[in-house]
Specification:
By secondary structure, this protein is α/β, with parallel strands linked by helices. It has two domains: 218 residues, 3-Layer(aba) Sandwich (Rossmann fold), CATH 3.40.50.2000; 170 residues, 3-Layer(aba) Sandwich (Rossmann fold). Helices cover 43% and strands 16% of the residues. The protein has a seven-stranded parallel sheet, sandwiched between helices. Strand 6, helix 8 and strand 7 form a beta-alpha-beta unit. It is globular, with a radius of gyration of 21 Å. It comes from Candidatus Blackburnbacteria bacterium RIFCSPHIGHO2_01_FULL_43_15b. It holds the Pfam family Glyco_trans_1_4.
Length: 398
């Protein structure tokens, strides 16, 4: 098939979240399909990565969006117009114009839109659209607004949340098929739009973390993420302020290592037992090192999000995980077998302490989690699921 794929980021380097998912799916899908990729970039230096994607894509086209989202222009357009800030800051007039011309002159079998907000670029077309919502975006921002520290501003911010919800559901309805990353998200979508045809295509693990390493039992707790995302900043704040002190009372020699991109978004931490490791976006080896040298991952995730790549990545790397019932969404893992689950700060700390001190439990969780990933979460398996959705959306084409 000829696939036209739109992403709100350049899917290389595969260092965080959606980039990892898109890059690995492109690699697998390119074995059967011709992919034309349209991506947004913020910085001109990202152009140097185009060659890595041209190995798998027939053509790669990139378009600039504002380097800094909070421009006066973006704020003004959001305030007076129908679109939410999320769509405004991820919109390129040049991309919309180019797509309009390309779809008039060239025939594609399918349009793959990664996130609903890239859909603003797509003109009216008869080409079937498969829309992938990596998370239900309005829920993410609603969670942020509900917990926003300045209560008087919450009603104003909620207007933008309602705009996101309006457009997100509208684009779901326009798509031939919609893809969620978890059953929970799929069910939430169908509650809002009962007629919606939703498939679940979860996240997988890239080859960089599929290396079969020995068990690495130690007292290092890690958390990995891109701290440009609200959910990761919230999780780190909870981990540092609430959970790690409770763990230290039980395991006095425990250490906490916070790893990832944009660590300047995290409040200053003053503790000799906590290390912050800032990684450049292209530093794939730094991510690998964190997963392979850590003892356990503690991920107190409470905000809704479809992309739980840090969790499946840790499982692949034989790094036992303690997370919440929300943190495990989209992953077919069993509490006590593949992962340890808890929702209160005390319970999370208690289960983390058990893993740090019980070698037998550590080995059980690490080994079972690795086997689960090998069976269900490699990108070869995930790409087959996506390919099946393509066939359904196009009436059986292959």
């Amino acid at each position: 098939m000829k696939v036209l794929m739109l992403t709100p980021y350049l899917p290389y380097p595969p260092s965080s979240g959606g980039q990892i998912r898109s890059y690995n799916l492109i690699k697998q899908l390119s074995k059967k399909h011709d992919i034309t990729l349209y991506s947004l970039i913020k910085h001109d230096e990202e152009r140097r990565y185009i060659g890595e994607l041209e190995k798998y894509c027939t053509e790669v086209k990139i378009f600039k969006r504002p380097t800094k989202p909070w421009t006066l222009s973006n704020i003004f357009k959001t305030g007076i117009g129908p679109y939410p800030f999320l769509m405004i800051r991820n919109f390129s007039p040049a991309e919309k114009s180019d797509l309009n011309n390309v779809l008039k002159s060239e025939k594609f079998d399918i349009i793959h839109a990664e996130t609903f907000y890239v859909s603003l670029h797509i003109p009216q077309t008869n080409t079937p659209i498969v829309l992938v919502d990596q998370t239900i975006e309005y829920e993410v921002y609603q969670h942020f607004v509900e917990n926003f520290k300045w209560k008087l501003l919450r009603p104003l911010l909620m207007i933008d949340v309602l705009k996101i919800k309006l457009w997100e559901t509208r684009y779901w309805e326009k798509a031939a098929r919609v893809i969620a990353l978890s059953e929970r998200d799929a069910n939430s979508m169908k509650k809002l739009v009962p007629s919606l045809n939703v498939a679940v295509v979860p996240n997988g693990v890239g080859e960089d973390l599929m290396e079969n390493v020995p068990l690495h039992f130690c007292k290092k707790i890690i958390f990995v993420g891109n701290y440009a995302w609200l959910q990761n900043v919230e999780a780190v704040n909870i981990l540092v302020r609430e959970i790690f002190p409770r763990i230290k009372k039980r395991v006095s020699d425990a250490k906490l290592i916070i790893v990832g991109q944009n660590t300047d978004k995290i409040p200053t931490i003053n503790s000799s037992d906590i290390e912050v490791v800032d990684l450049k976006i292209e530093d794939i080896e730094g991510i690998q090192k964190a997963y392979h040298e850590g003892g356990i991952m503690v991920a107190p995730l409470y905000g809704p999000s479809g992309a739980r790549l840090k969790i499946v990545g840790a499982m692949a790397a034989k790094l036992p995980v303690v997370t919440t019932s929300i943190g495990i969404l989209g992953i077919d893992a069993t509490d006590g077998e593949h992962v340890l689950l808890a929702d209160t700060f005390d319970e999370i700390a208690q289960k983390a302490a058990r893993l740090l001190t019980d070698n037998k439990l550590y080995k059980k969780i690490a080994t079972n989690a690795r086997s689960l990933v090998e069976d269900k979460y490699t990108y070869q398996v995930i790409a087959q699921k996506l390919d099946a959705v393509y066939k359904e959306a196009t009436g059986g084409k292959s």
